Amino acid sequence: MYATRTRNARPEPFTVHVGIAERLGLAHMDWPLTIAAVSLIAFSVFTLGQATQSDVPGDPNYFLERQAIYALLGIVGMVVLTRIDYSRFRELRVGIYTFLCASVSLVFVFGFAARGSRRSFELPFFSFQPSELGKLLLVLALAGFVIDGARRGSEVQRTVRYLCLGLAPAALVFLQPDLGTSLVYVVATLAVMYFGGVPWTHFAVIGGALVALIALVLVVAPAVGTPILKGYQEERLTSFLDPHEHEAGAGYQQNQSVIATGAGQLTGRGDKATQTRLDFVPERHTDFIFAVIGERYGFMGAALVLSLYALLFWRALRITTLSKNSYGTLVAGGIAVALLFQTFVNVGMNLGIMPITGIPLPLMSYGGSSVVATFLAIGVLQSINVQAHLSQKGRFAW
Amino acid sequence: MYLRNDSRPQGSRLSLRVAVIGGIGVVLFAVLFFRLWNLQVLSGDEYLAEAQNNRTREFKQIAPRGDILDRNGEVLVDNRTSLALQLNTSKLPEDPAEERAELARLGELSHMSLRKVRRTIKEGEEVAAGAPVTLRRDVGFELIAYIEENQEEFPGVSVQRVFVRHYPDGTRAAHVVGSVGEISEEELKEPEYRGLEPGDEVGKGGAEYTYDKFLRGDPGYTRIQVNALGQPTPGGQLVSQAPTPGNNLKLTIDGNVQAAGEGGLGARGLPGAFISMNIDNGEILAMGSNPTYDPTDLIEPTQAEVDALYRDPVLAPLVDRATESAYPTGSIFKIITALAALENGVITPDTVVQDNGMIEVGTQEFENAGGVAHGAVELRRALQVSSDVYFYLLGLDMWETNELQEWAHKLGIGQPSGLDLPEEGETLLPSKAWRNQLYKEGNTDRPWSAGDNVQLATGQGDLQTNPLQMALAYAALGNGGKIPTPHVALEVEDAAGRVLKEFEFGPQRKFHIDPANRTAILEGLHAAAQEGDGTAAGVFGGFPIPIAGKTGTAQRPGHADQSWFAALSPYPNPRIVTIATVEEGGFGAESAAPVVLDILEAIYDKQASAISSAGGAE
Prior knowledge:
heterodimer, A: 398 residues, mainly alpha, 3-stranded antiparallel sheet, B: 618 residues, alpha+beta, Penicillin-binding protein 2a (Domain 2), Beta-lactamase, 7-stranded mixed sheet, 5-stranded antiparallel sheet, 37% helix
């Protein structure tokens, strides 16, 4: 924005002076969004560096180094996407959608099984989890389908079509099994439909169906002997309602996480943060990293992180209103809601008010797929922002 | 429908939808902030306490039990340190085959089967989950060295110093000091064991049991920082509180007297028992039973030791025959008959009875031992030569009254003795009421008869008592009507020898005995022990200390005659009662009296001993 102002301050009617920021496509970036994202990943790398010193014997910086590399990759990806007109993705929607479904399906064939579920490909450098990138791909493709199909069929037909398109990859991910990520797919699908103007009444019906489905999955199906969720999934989902009853099982992790966070008090325990340093909190570098922040840096650190997420969400939502076209609005809305959902569910899980669903905290949890995919999504948001500014100026990016 | 992609979406419909999502976002973030504030700022203290509690584990350090000393400070029981093989099960290999291999190898090295190793681990885990399990105590240095040199082959195995009870003199006073063992589930529920945990060692018998709370000590704790698996983290020792050793218990037992009694009784080679007690305060100077055992054998008994200790009902080495037996006593009972008759005015000390060697009661004939006729005897003479007929007649005179039983009861026969050790057997003082009740219930063929009382008068018939009870009866005779509380505990001392507690055991009851009657009986006993043709004069005639004593030869159904001897010393103002009995030992003077002589020699040989000097042996 200030770049724009700078240029206006020195009008050159005949020669357009293209600055370095302009060349890199950074001129019309949403800087608060960038700052929030980069601050979060920096906080993540810093926290991992402090909290996982003794996790990998002989390599105290194992997680720190890898997360830093993922962060760099992600930032590069974000900058690249910033300079691309996101509108091209609308034209590629069928290809993107096909790639999405293929990649989450191929995991079943070539996937690397971790703890009983096949979610990722084992690559030489890191294990690639297609369902993470799939969140972005789903939003990009589905938004395209929504725009494209806006004039075809009745409203009900359209709603059913969008739902089917969105729920198919969600079902594939659910079968991996990865309950958490499939829930993100569902939420992203609903968000794109929501911003695409699907009538409120339809959402009311969908909501009612969801309630019925939950009742079916958690109550009816086990009662008639054909459980849909695996035992650990159901226990995770319901144990947060009474963590003390499940102290030794699924509730144990959550209980320990709550103790850790609470123990951080106002200013945190720093290196005295025994709860998260001594293995009481499981998966502390991924799903429960917020508890680590809570214990080490206290309310001040945790509130700062939450504020950065609030900033991220606000800027993403703001971009939905700036977009030069409806496709941008739908994409930005899907990404914004998906980020909000993931943040709330993960932090809520760390604080003991949401069930354990295995959703990573965007830009904070350790993991290349999640970090890179989230940066790419933010890159798309930046692209929408840049395009909006350029279209107002009557100019297009290179 | 507002969607037209070629233009920017406009209008209130999008604005409304964005606003709704924004509102939801605000609410969700508010929930998170509120929850975070609640957890960390409002109730952070509680969680901090919980977290601190979470990361530490206490490892108990066993306190060594106090020593048990004799009255001269000689050690009867102390501890030795032993090297124990311990296993931290969480460090065992995860692979079941590897785990099996390691356990099998450990078992082989420590002479245990794989099954026993697994059972020991399982039992240990039940007692204290997470704590290292003791596989075997007293492992040899070679094994320790081998395991330490090959540490990588034995993950989780460590060597720990533990305390094991040690008995320097083996069997010395075994029945008195008792044994220790792991606390039982029932004991854990009892208030006197509050604060103890499964696996703790407590006294199981003897003084170890009664005075457990003094001997036990307080365990120490090492608080160690642990991770979620309960494994100590490097350098994570937080607090360490050294264990407080138990206090020492000083017994009234005099080791030398005890040794003399055990030696004398052991030399007989027959089952039996002895007791030597201060008649004024009830302090037991020596008490023993034969056959005896080495309490060491109870710590980790081999099968052969188990068989020897528990499976022999005849020898029954664990039974304390001084307190748990039930014998007829023969003639040493006569002092009770004499007291009952004198105090009830049935006779006077000078009443003369014609002893023709036998009497007839109804159809039954009762005769003196060997059928000897003692002629005209009064009380002193009757005691000196042990005239049965004299006492038969007293029994006959009192058969319909309860006078004999009343006095026997007063003197402690057939009653709990008040001893401070848990081992005490059932005894029986036969009486009219007892037998008639049995008869009424159809458990015997006849009611109480004169013959029953005639038999009781000489310590025969249905009488079932033990050396301890007889010692109390003789003590009351000796001190003029006071039943002391027999006990073995003298005082509690700390490790430096400072006295922390002196035990006071007052008399249990007092009653009046006419001094003239007492003197007459003691004269008769003195004559029996040391004068002329007294029944034990052959044994004690040359003993320099004057004593009053009585032989007993008890007919015990199914056994040869049982030898008894009871002595009050020194005469005429006795301080100590000493009683011995030898099963199938024949006449009283034959085997029991020599055991008493051995004990008395040990007592009066040691002039420095507080008891003997106070007893006026000079």
